[in-house]
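S.,

Sequence below, as promised.
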Amino acid sequence: MGTPNSQGYSPDRNSWGIITAATNIVKTAEQINPSSPNVQNAWKYLLLGQTSCYWYWDYAENGVWDSHPARAANMAVAQVSSIIQGQNETVGPEIFLPQRHPYNPGGKEFNIQQTSDVTIWTYVYDYSGLSRVQLKYRIDNDGVNSMLTNHNETYAGGSDVGQWQTINMTGISIPSQTNPQPTYKAQEFSALITGLNDVLIDYYVEAEDTRGNVSKSIIQHVWIGQASSGTQTGITWSPVNPNMNDVITITVNDASIGGKLHWGVNGWTQPIQEYWTQNSYLFNSTGPAVQSPMNGPTNNKLTIQIGPFNNPQQVVNTVDFVINYNNNTWDNNNGNDYHINISQSSATNLFEINFDGLTNASLFPNPVNDKFFVLLSANKDHSYPAKITDITGKTLREFLISNNIAEQDISELKQGLYFIHIYSPYDAKSITLKLIKE
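The prediction came back faster than expected:
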């Protein structure tokens, strides 16, 4: 998955919205005429468009790699367009696996303090049109996802969790930078959860089409920590790992007075004027530091956007800054200043970070009747050993996860709660997930 951009979203948006829309259309055609050879051909094109190499190189080669999923999706929907026209259908909206920003709300990412407000976002599409897209979330009662119950993993819940709360999600259309342009593309939907601190929440996205068909994403979980407060703490920026073509948003959280960004580049060298924001000026008229007025405070936040830093007259590897408040106080990060590293690569992709290991995992579907998939977020396509155990800890099956995905059939197991244990021999990490067998 790509790192978030200055709006908090990921550059993979070029492909995710396209594939989401095409998937709904092909599923709709399959429901209407499952035996059609055109449906089979459509799936071949669509699955080819999801090959992993296209997802790893977002924006590479001026967007050429992003164009391959668009081309595959267009070919897939062209195969089935005549099947779905004017037909009744019962397929619910397609919902891309919901994402969140920041990923660690109220905590730190790359040693940068994050706000406790969290945006949940996804792509949703239905060929018949959407009547509603909603974010559902609930608070865990004791802050612990107990391994002894399935209350956090089921929509029905139980005594461990509170009631679902609903927020309507807002959809926006993101222009594609692909050639060809996509025939269909899902809108990007988002909703903001605010005012929570030191709680564990469950959340999912529910969508309904104009025919009354309803879809739900899988339930996900996140701990929302206590964000830092005070007029001179809680400095964040997005994207957290920017490249030379990114616009960077710097935010001062919990600000009660205005301020200026006091900044330089490459170890406090004076930036060229092409990088200055409006109304910037040299500090003390001589520099080398530049002072740039920040916007706000609005909702107790100061913000400013700087970049992109791609002018060949000055290569920028780091942006160095402190905050100069209008009452002439300073936030200099306890004497360490703040530093943003700028990648000279034009691709913003976490897979370019040079480290191994397992970062996250999920199960789909969950609950499950027979077959389920284990999906890994890992920084390289290693093989990861895994096993299935029951609630007593007895090992029922061992298997290997390759290329970040594995399929398992547990139709022979009884209904109940099971655990999936995944191990990473590359960084000594392990992840345990609960699986509900219906």
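Residues 64-84 form the longest helix (21 residues).

Coffee later?
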